[in-house]
Design a protein that fits this description.
By secondary structure, the protein is of the alpha/beta class. It has 15 helices and 16 strands. The strands form two sheets. Strands 1, 2, 3, 4, 5, 14, 15 and 16 form an eight-stranded mixed sheet that branches. Strands 6-7-8-9-10-11-12-13 form an eight-stranded parallel sheet. α4 packs across α5, α5 runs parallel beside α6 and α6 packs parallel to α7. The protein starts with a strand and ends with a strand. The mean pLDDT is 96. The structure holds N-(iminomethyl)-L-glutamic acid (NIG) and fe (iii) ion. The site of fe (iii) ion (FE) has 5 residues, from loops.
Length: 405
Amino acid sequence: MIESFIVTNIGELVTFDKNNMVVYHDVEMIIKNGVVKKIGKNIDSPEFEKVDADGKLVTPGFVDPHTHPVFNETRELEYEMRVMGKSYMEIAESGGGIRSSVRSLRSANLEELKIKVKKRLDGFLQYGTTTIEAKSGYGLSKESELNSLLLLKELAQNHPLDIKTTFLGAHEYPDEYRDDHEKYIEILINEMIPQVVREGLADYCDVFCEEGVFSVDESRRVLEAAKFLGLGLRLHAGEFKPIGGAQLAAKLGAFSADHLVAISDEGISALKEGNVVPVLLPATTFFLGSDKYAPGRKMWDAGLPVAVATDFNPGSSMTQSMPFVITLACLKLKLTPMEALQAATINAAKSLRMEKIVGSLEKGKQADFVIWKFNRYQGIPYYLAFQSIRQVWKKGVNVWESCDN
Ligand code: NIG
Ligand code: FE
């Protein structure tokens, strides 16, 4: 394990300076104690060990700002039902969807669950992801939500990924409160959120604000309680219907509003005014077999710092691949490869308020980077579903390596 070294023979290095992409050619990068020290040409540094990038592309590690890795069983039978014509919401209303994952998680053995989640965390590394946001939300009881967050916190202690955690107790109404929403909201506000905060289990609070799930007013009450106790806010908004989640995110000063497939023009203006980062999830739209993608181009042109994420979850997005998300961001959200890469790194870091430490390769920031098998950044969206990563480095440590290096 070496944490101070020089990466030599970098064919192309892509990073971001404020909002602009910077592309260097034929450079070297000095890493000291896990932090970027210097990027330049012909650096004279005989004292450093060398890592040879072999003329290939180097980029910042990806930041995936929206994932749901704490689930028990997968849901491929539901996937089959969808392929055969049932919609995501129809499946949810008939007791499948999130609620079936809740029943499964509640009956899981915690030690076995921990092993499954650990493997999923490992899975992110092979796609070049070095920082994630991870949500609870398949427990929906005090005990099970707290266990989900605790499990993430415990795994985070010994995992190379930087993992920020989000309390998503308001992901759905659990079966036992189907007919008493008010009671569940009271439990969220008066019991779960205070305990999550007391035990330091979450950085953010999120709500699934959608027709048939949490209304704008219900979402507001939950998020206000979380904000009052110091949590950052995120919001699943406008995945299917534009009920005003984006406006709510802006009003409450949320860090991000996510999905936004069904965002209105007023919603876009509100995000701009409220300084909210839109986190778009094109792999979810793809996985649900829909043709209606979030208006990424429009949001980018409106001056919003558009970010992208996998939304990795067992129901609507069974992928951990940010390169695949970048391909979709180009083809379906109509971002350029350069913009899509920015959305997957520095803008994603902004949505987590981590842009000072991750998301770009600059002096003083963490040495989180990927060495690719090709030599220009356009290759990232271009090589669709290839295994095109050579090495992944986190804080100056080589945490993943391709076997056909
Ligand atoms: O972001 N939309 C709500 N939550 C997840 C789906 C969760 C599930 O189906 O299990 C999402 O797509
Ligand atoms: Fe989600």
